[in-house]
From TrEMBL:
Residues 1-24 are annotated as: Disordered. InterPro entries: AAA_16, Hybrid_Histidine_Kinase, P-loop_NTPase. Signal peptide: none annotated. This is Orc1-like AAA ATPase domain-containing protein. Residues 269-457 form the Orc1-like AAA ATPase domain. It holds the Pfam family AAA_16. PANTHER family: HYBRID SIGNAL TRANSDUCTION HISTIDINE KINASE G. It comes from the Eukaryota.
Length: 1290
């Protein structure tokens, strides 16, 4: 990708030479020549024309400077070229008539007199070709750059010879002095439009050089001519001066007067940072090429230019079609997560404003397809601006997520990270990179840093973010920074560090030169004095030393701090040591500057600046410093502040209007100004300010309510609060905590809740009962969201123990049970807690769950069979409060028992939920109905139609009446995991399960998220998803189980990983029975293994041996073991089959047991085994017929393949139905995208016809099978079929 030449690079001393510059001394086709005398006459006529302005005059001065530069370069070259001109030879050349000018332009407009292209000298005969910077229309405007092309080139013919050097004594010879004087006369005449120089005039005001000032020309021209006329300036030095003038005309060729208010670090170029700028831009270019997110740490002391360095890459982001967002963390206020959310919200707004309708539609479609519509309502709660991405899409977020309360209880910082990562992955890409810049991360916390790190994790094909984190290395918590860096590197995120120290003295002189609009040689003494005053040394961090390399020193010199330098200049002006001389149009200073005792602490310098302001302005700035460094006009009005005083601060560069703000607001131009605005007694001042704002506040609706609470809390800490204000402050913090929770800023919420609790009296459970209940519930949510699970649990138990009424503890119990269930191996404790609470609510909970599910299900099924679908959907909402409470906790108990694989408990809860729902519907009804459908599916074929009917009713209820994101993961788990698989495609089920997993992660329900993802992997495998893609899903699943320390699911993920690795790479698996395990699945008495894990282990052994084509006897042994384990498990758990086990049966019984009929495998000697397998096949054949009629997209190919194999086993080779059955199975598998089963059908057909002697037909089928297995990614099957084909060639 090509980017424009960076215009922010500093220049000092040396010339920038464009690498592809090829000089051509010949006249170009679009150039015209004119004598210098005639050209000056034209310039004079243009400048005196009526209507000419200052800008035209400045452009004329620039053109004349370019001509002078060409003349000086000709003289320089002539002395060392083949001409070998001496100073005496050149003296006669210093006349206007000796030169011709070359001009380039179209000359179609009267005011267009062309651009200077070159200068020709008659004596000595030579020519200089000039390529000047390409300036824009803002050439003389205040800004960081002068031109678009930062190169000034000159080529002289004949060129100088490197072997010739000017004699050293030539510089001091009379001839040289005379040449300088004559050259000064020539330049003087050129700048005065050809007006001749008169010898013998006074050196005072009427002197020739002062005539330049009288004509309004800049002091740099005046001083150049003066020093040449005096013989004090060499030709080389004159060339350097002119080079500076042409490269930066806005600084050195400005004809208007300079004032102290023009001092600005912002308008100055970023000098001395060329290497850092290249590193920054190269890193971004790499990101746009690889698509892998990058992290850049930029450290340095305050004022070293960290933010300005980051801004140099912003133009490249725009060129690449990306977006750039920058935020700064405030000091002393812990709202870090709010700032991160604000940054992503701003990104959404920027994307919506700068993208086409087609681009927005693409983003919206990607979000919906990957996460589903309901998840968007969860995003909307965290990022309200998300609806802007859908302004051209039919989706309306207002219709989504109608039942939000339940889902908020599980939100955590990790779930917030997941939401942000999901969104930014959809927005960012190689073609749409995102620059996220967070400055001053030393004021944030580890949790917020973790959220930022999560945004860039995941590697290629995820987010494409350039995350730039700036900090002051002398103020950051080193341990937190080390942890963040280690976390990023462990996630394989590329990390780089840039450390900024003070700029070197040559660049510093350039900086001061540009600020004062004086050439470097004129202000060198001043620049050196200021440079020495900024020389301090401070210890630095380990990461800074790491960024510097092996030669870094533990003491880094901070001399040359740009911000400090500019403030010191302002201080010198205030002390009248530095002043602007209008008559000379330049700055002058007294000798006192060299002896002045200036503070090396920039705050002292800035406070001197503040002392010049009146008391009202200082008070206004102090208020702004208290309000995070900004002052909204609305707040100033509430405080009756004289807002007009802000203009005084703006005029001296302390304040500026907030850019891009929706409300009128002002901010400090630099953090140091905010620090300087603070005074003694700051905590008391902020407390009184907060209380005054509170008196005018509308409560939680006040957009500044959290800021008000922050102000009050600063004063509360370490100070005694009046008793009359105590209860009010407690209430304010409770409200602020609730609002922060609503904003998903749990870090900030935790601070408010802890402050409120610290202020509670010792008898608060009696004297402040209601506030205590509300506070402890919010405190527990905040603690849990921040990962402090034990403290959250103890807080909830304290609330429960001190409650006066059990009804007051319902929310606390619900949250406690949720937390316990998320904690590994505490599901039983959570379930028993639900049961005890249900008893308190009047639920008749059985002492023993044996045989409790059968009678309720029979009665419920009878009621539902008698009602039509429309009659069921017409049932009104549940109004009985106690029924609502009971179904709420029955639903929670059902979630706990189902994920813990306790079917008896789950059956009871589902039956009771459906019974209550038949009296009135609630948000829990859809899950109750679909869970009933799940258990009906567990009855095998007999109840599938009934399960399908109830499941579809549940789906309509969920979509049309109760679209609650909190219920979606559980609903999809039951519906798409077990019910709809009988009539929906496997691919559809897998997609909805993945979306449910996404919603569960976003709402903090990690257990449900993992199990949804787990079953999605199962469905994807049987749907024929390419094995490498499934392998990536499984690796992610393992990472999640490890991350959340949930051993309940880690074994399942590892089993799948072993299976995939075996099928993809052909790794050897143990085809014998597992050690210490009997054929009936029992274990030795001294060992314990979870029954479902044991079944999964055996199941995966069977899958591996089947697809790898292992010995049939081993496969059948694993299959028999699995069936025995499943039978034992079902007998020990419930009267109906477990819905969690049904999806296991889709593999080994429904389909994969067909291949053992094929005659190509070793015969089974034991007649009992053959008889048993024939019985199984007959049973499966009947099942597949009914399943294929219900769900042909999933089972038709299996049914046809089983029919073909039965014909094959009967040796009915000439039966026309046999090939039709094979072809029908192949076509059906292809239409369902079952690439693996299409390959299997082709393989079996090929082996059949090979055995029948039809080799050509067999080859066709086998070659198709090899293609299918290759696409699926199953290496052992590819090799297996390839070996068969090779054997046919032998």
């Amino acid at each position: 990708m090509e980017y424009p030449t960076d215009r922010a690079s500093g220049f000092s001393g040396g010339r920038k030479r464009r690498p592809n510059f090829i000089p051509n001394p010949e006249t170009a086709a679009d150039e015209v020549s004119i004598s210098l005398h005639e050209w000056l006459a034209l310039e004079e006529a243009t400048s005196t024309r009526e209507g000419s302005n200052l800008l035209q005059k400045e452009k004329s001065v620039l053109r004349k400077s370019q001509i002078c530069y060409g003349i000086v370069e000709v003289f320089k070259a002539a002395r060392s070229s083949a001409l070998r001109s001496t100073p005496k030879d050149l003296q006669s050349s210093c006349v206007v008539e000796n030169f011709t000018i070359f001009i380039r332009g179209d000359f179609l407009e009267d005011e267009d007199i062309g651009a200077i292209a070159g200068v020709r000298c008659e004596t000595p005969p030579s020519r200089a070709k000039i390529i000047t910077p390409n300036f824009g229309s803002s050439i003389f405007e205040q800004g960081p750059s002068s031109g678009e092309d930062g190169f000034l080139e000159v080529e002289v013919h004949p060129p100088p010879l490197t072997c010739l050097e000017v004699a050293e004594d030539c510089a001091t010879s009379p001839d040289e002095t005379r040449l300088r004087h004559l050259l000064g006369r020539l330049l003087h005449s050129i700048f005065l439009d050809g007006s001749p120089y008169v010898e013998g005039e006074s050196d005072n005001v009427g002197s020739p050089e002062s005539r330049l000032l009288a004509r309004g020309l800049p002091s740099s021209i005046h001083l150049l001519c003066r020093d040449l006329l005096k013989g004090e300036l060499s030709i080389d030095e004159a060339s350097t001066d002119l080079h500076y003038m042409i490269m930066e005309p806005s600084a050195f060729l400005r004809c208007s007067d300079m004032t102290p208010s023009n001092f600005s670090l912002i308008r100055s170029k970023l000098r001395g940072r060329d290497a850092e700028i290249r590193t920054m831009n190269d890193t971004f270019c790499k990101l746009t090429t690889t698509g892998v997110s990058e992290v850049m740490f930029v450290s340095g002391f305050s004022g070293s230019g960290k933010s300005r360095l980051v801004r140099t890459v912003v133009p490249h982001v725009a060129v690449a079609g990306g977006f750039a967002i920058s935020k700064k963390f405030p000091q002393g206020i812990d709202d870090s997560l709010s700032l991160v959310l604000e940054a992503i919200n701003d990104l959404i707004i920027m994307v919506s404003e700068d993208s086409t309708d087609e681009e927005l539609y693409s983003i919206a479609s990607e979000l919906i397809s990957s996460v589903g519509e309901v998840f968007l309502s969860v995003i909307h709660q965290v990022l309200p601006s998300i609806d802007l991405l859908f302004n051209v899409n039919v989706t309306s977020l207002a219709s989504l997520g109608r039942g939000m309360p339940e889902q908020t209880s599980g939100l955590t910082n990790e779930s917030i990270s997941f939401i942000l990562k999901t969104l930014i992955t959809a927005i960012s890409s190689r073609d749409r990179p995102v620059l996220l810049h967070f400055d001053d991360i030393q004021w944030t916390n580890a949790s917020s840093l973790s959220v930022m790190a999560e945004l860039v994790s995941g590697g290629i094909d995820t987010s494409c973010i350039f995350l730039v984190l700036g900090y002051r290395d002398n103020e950051i918590n080193q341990a937190v920074l080390n942890d963040l860096t280690a976390c990023l590197r462990s996630s394989c995120v590329p990390v780089q560090h840039i450390h900024l120290v003070g700029i070197d003295e040559p660049y510093f002189i350039d900086l001061i030169s540009n600020a004062l609009c004086m050439l470097p040689r004129h202000c060198k003494s001043l620049s050196t004095a200021v440079y020495r005053k900024t020389k301090v040394s401070r210890p630095v961090s380990f990461l800074v030393l790491l960024a510097m390399g092996p030669h870094g020193s533990p003491e880094i010199s901070l001399k040359g701090n740009p911000f400090f330098a500019f403030q010191m200049l302002g201080s010198l002006v205030d002390r009248r040591i530095l002043s602007y001389n209008k008559s000379c149009k330049c700055w002058t200073w007294t000798d006192a500057i060299y002896n002045q005792d200036l503070s090396e602490n920039v705050l002292f310098v800035l406070r001197d600046k503040f002392d010049l302001l009146d008391s009202e302005t200082q008070h206004l700035l102090r208020v702004a410093a208290s309000l995070r460094g900004s002052l909204p006009i609305a707040v100033a009005t509430r405080l009756d502040l004289p807002i007009e005083k802000i203009n005084s601060a703006i005029s001296i560069g302390i304040m500026e209007r907030c850019p891009g703000s929706d409300v009128e607001s002002y901010q400090f131009t630099h953090d140091k100004f905010r620090e300087a605005a603070s005074a003694d007694g700051e905590t008391a001042f902020r407390y009184s300010l907060g209380m005054k704002l509170l008196d005018t506040s509308s409560g939680q609706k006040d957009e500044y309510f959290l800021d008000i609470c922050d102000l009050i809390n600063v004063g509360v800490e370490g100070n005694r609060v009046a008793h009359s204000d105590l209860n009010r402050i407690i209430a304010v913090n409770i409200l602020a905590g609730d609002k922060a929770i609503q904003n998903s800023d749990f870090i900030r919420a935790l601070g408010y809740c802890r402050t409120a609790k610290s202020l509670l009296p010792s008898d608060h459970w009696s004297s402040m009962y209601d506030p205590s209940l509300r506070l402890h519930l919010s405190l527990s949510k905040s603690l849990y969201a921040n990962g402090e699970v034990d403290l959250a649990e103890s807080t909830l138990r304290e609330l429960i123990d001190n409650s006066r009424d059990p009804l007051d503890t319902l929310d606390a119990h619900h949250q406690l049970h949720f937390m316990l269930h998320q904690s590994n191996r505490r599901s039983e404790e959570a379930f028993q807690g639900c049961m005890r609470l249900l008893e308190q609510l009047g639920e008749d909970v059985p002492d023993n769950f044996e045989n409790t599910s059968a009678p309720p299900f029979a009665r419920i099924r009878h009621v539902l069979e008698k009602k039509s679908e429309e009659e069921i959907l017409a049932i009104q909402d549940l109004n009985d409060e106690n029924d609502l409470r009971r179904i709420r906790f029955l639903s929670q108990a059902c979630i706990i028992s189902s994920t813990a694989l306790r079917p008896r408990m789950t059956a009871y809860c589902i039956a009771r939920m459906v019974e209550i729902s038949l009296r009135g519907f609630s948000v829990y009804t859809p899950y109750a109905f679909v869970a009933l459908g799940t258990f009906l599916c567990g009855q095998r074929i007999n109840a599938i139609s009934e399960a399908q009917r109830i499941g579809k009713i549940a789906l309509r209820l969920f979509n049309e009446r109760f679209s609650d994101p909190g219920q979606l993961p559980l609903f999809n788990l039951a519906y798409y995991g077990f019910v709809s698989v009988r009539f929906e495609s496997f691919q559809t089920c897998a997609t909805h399960l993945r979306q449910a997993s996404t919603v569960a992660f976003s709402t903090g329900n990690f257990a449900l998220a993992i199990i949804n993802n787990q079953i999605s992997i199962n469905k994807s495998f049987f749907a024929g998803k390419p094995l490498p893609s499934i392998s990536e899903d499984i690796k992610r699943q393992i990472e999640l189980t490890v991350k959340y320390k949930d051993s309940r699911f880690v074994n399942y993920a590892r089993f799948w990983n072993q299976t995939l690795q075996s099928l993809m790479h052909g790794e050897a698996e143990n085809s014998s029975l597992p050690e210490d395990r009997h054929l009936d699945g029992s274990l030795p008495a001294d060992r314990h293994l979870d029954a479902t894990a044991s079944m999964m282990d055996t199941f995966h052994k069977a899958v591996q041996t089947f697809w790898k084509g292992c010995v049939l006897d081993a496969y059948l042994s694993f299959l028999q073991l699995f069936l025995n384990q499943l039978t034992n498990y079902l007998q020990q758990t419930c009267l109906v089959q477990s819905p969690q086990a049904i999806h296991f049966l889709d593999g080994p019984i429904d389909f994969q047991s067909t291949e053992q009929c094929n005659g190509g495998y070793p015969k089974i000697d034991a007649s009992s085994k053959v008889s048993e397998m024939r019985r199984v096949i007959a049973h499966v054949r009947e099942d597949l017929k009914e399943l294929a009629s219900e769900s042909p997209q999933n089972y038709e190919n299996k049914k046809q393949l089983l029919e073909a194999e039965i014909y094959s086993c009967r040796n009915e080779t000439h039966n026309g139905l046999l090939r039709k059955a094979y072809d029908a199975s192949i076509l059906s598998a292809k239409s369902s995208n079952f690439i693996h089963e299409q390959g299997l059908a082709c393989e079996l057909a090929g082996k059949h016809f090979l055995g029948a002697g039809k080799r050509d037909l067999a080859r066709k089928y086998l070659e198709d099978a090899q293609k299918c297995y290759t696409e699926w990614g199953c290496t052992p099957k590819v090799h297996y079929v390839k070996d068969i084909l090779s054997g046919m060639d032998d």
